[in-house]
Specification:
Layout: H1 2-15, H2 19-43, H3 51-62, E1 72-73, E2 76-77, H4 82-94, H5 101-126, H6 142-150, H7 155-170, H8 174-187, H9 195-230, H10 234-241, H11 261-264, H12 267-287, H13 296-304, H14 313-329, H15 346-351, H16 363-381, H17 387-407
Antiparallel strand pairs: 1-2
Length: 420
């Protein structure tokens, strides 16, 4: 009947992959998010954590201090690259030295909405995501709203620039994308977790010369921003802004609460996690990435014969997001603001193959994945973290990795790569 056909059409519109429906849902949710974010700023009290420290550090920077060992705040020294100081110096100027907190929050509302629009575009361009998935990027993100507009961390700003870079990458604007990527790294070095996937994307799409050029662009941006500090005291800048040996405090950990503190602080655990991280990225790179083009190995073989391979947006996003995920799964410690590192990527990794067919909704699959995302949200919203919350977070990560391994498309036979 016409009623049944209408219901099937509605289901396919929301649970299938349709451009028009996606655009309508994205616009409505974006507008709703604008309203909700402004309401949060208006009604929910601001929480001071790091903003005042950022402003204290910036005040020293604005007075001309270029020795990184002397740039400190009430909660400690500056441990971020030079782009962090440059960005928050601008925000300090726009907010009366950081005193106009409400103005700063409105700026972060704008950043949040830009970030959301960039993520929506990535999902849209992937042509793999049904409109219903967008709900998980908005209505379930209690902690993400807090990170952006109530606590004013630098993490989401670094991620906003990364998503801008990723949009450039999927549009084949590699050099511009690398500029934004390097700027993101200059705010917080967690963005380096995407570097393995980006390297192979550059290599297979741009060839050896193009890869060297774009990596050089990234390096020059880092050097340019850091030059005032490097010329004064290079060692303090390098050891402070890119400190890989930094020891995290046990009381703030989200993911390792179930361990005794002495084990959490043990360097052998840190080394083991680093080894597992490297191994997992290697395994994903050579067995999971770019499978629609025969895998990374075949793409490199083509490159050695002078043939570059252009991967579609979904392949690029899969590689970038899983590269980042492996770093988070094996992180030495996760703090609450780190949720912004991967919150907007998890729905893609879980739902990129979930859609209705002829009006039949895969309800069981959607229900299980929804529970996993809610478990992740629960773990990140439990403060302080508990043995239960941190254990559940690891179980959720384990499910996501297992799901990726079990549902990835079978590697295809050799296909003709595009020569350009």
């Amino acid at each position: 009947s016409w009623c049944e056909r209408g219901m099937v059409s509605l289901i396919d519109a929301l649970f299938g992959v349709h451009d028009l429906t996606f655009q309508v849902v994205a616009i409505l949710l974006w507008l709703a998010e604008a309203f909700v974010s402004l309401l949060i700023v208006k009604r929910v009290p601001y929480t001071e954590i790091d903003w005042s420290t950022y402003m204290q550090q910036v005040a020293l920077y604005d007075k001309g201090e270029r020795n990184y060992s002397r740039i400190e705040g009430s909660t400690g020294p500056c441990v971020y690259p030079a782009g962090h100081l440059a960005l928050f110096s601008l925000l300090s100027t726009l907010t009366n030295g950081g005193k106009d907190i409400r103005v700063a929050q409105y700026f972060f509302v704008v950043f949040y909405l830009i970030n959301l629009a960039l993520v929506f575009r990535l999902y849209y361009k992937s042509k793999r995501i049904a409109p219903f998935v967008l709900v998980f990027l908005t209505l379930t993100g209690y902690r993400i709203h807090s990170i952006f507009v109530l606590r004013l961390f630098n993490d989401p700003l670094a991620m906003m620039l990364f998503y801008l870079a990723a949009n450039c990458f999927i549009s084949q604007s590699w050099t511009i994308g690398c500029v934004f990527y390097s700027l993101a790294v200059s705010i917080k070095m967690n963005v380096l977790l995407f570097a393995p996937a980006l390297f192979f994307l550059l290599l297979t799409n741009q060839g050896y010369a193009g890869t060297i050029w774009n990596i050089g662009i990234c390096g020059l941006i880092q050097l340019g921003l850091a030059l005032p500090f490097l010329s004064r005291d290079p060692w303090s800048y390098i050891t402070r802004s890119f400190d890989l040996s930094r020891v995290f405090m046990f009381k703030w950990t989200v993911n390792w609460r179930f361990l005794p503190e002495e084990i959490f602080l043990d360097k052998r655990l840190h080394l083991a996690l680093l080894v597992l991280h490297v191994i997992s990225v290697f395994l994903f790179a050579f067995f999971m990435w770019f499978r629609t083009h025969g895998g990374l190995k075949r793409a490199i073989e083509h490159l050695n014969h002078g043939i570059r391979t252009r991967f579609g947006p979904s392949e690029a996003m899969y590689a970038l997001f899983t590269s980042n995920l492996m770093g988070i799964v094996f992180a030495r410690s996760l703090h609450y603001q780190f949720y912004s590192w991967y919150f907007h990527q998890l729905p893609f990794l879980l739902f990129y193959k979930t859609r209705s067919i002829n009006g039949k909704i895969p309800l069981y699959s959607i229900a299980v994945k929804s529970v996993v995302l809610l478990v992740v949200e629960y773990a990140w919203n439990t403060y302080p973290s508990t043995v239960l919350s941190s254990s559940l977070l690891h179980l959720a990560h384990l499910y996501i990795v297992g799901h990726l391994l079990l549902t990835r498309d079978a590697i295809e036979k050799p296909v003709k790569s595009k020569l350009f």
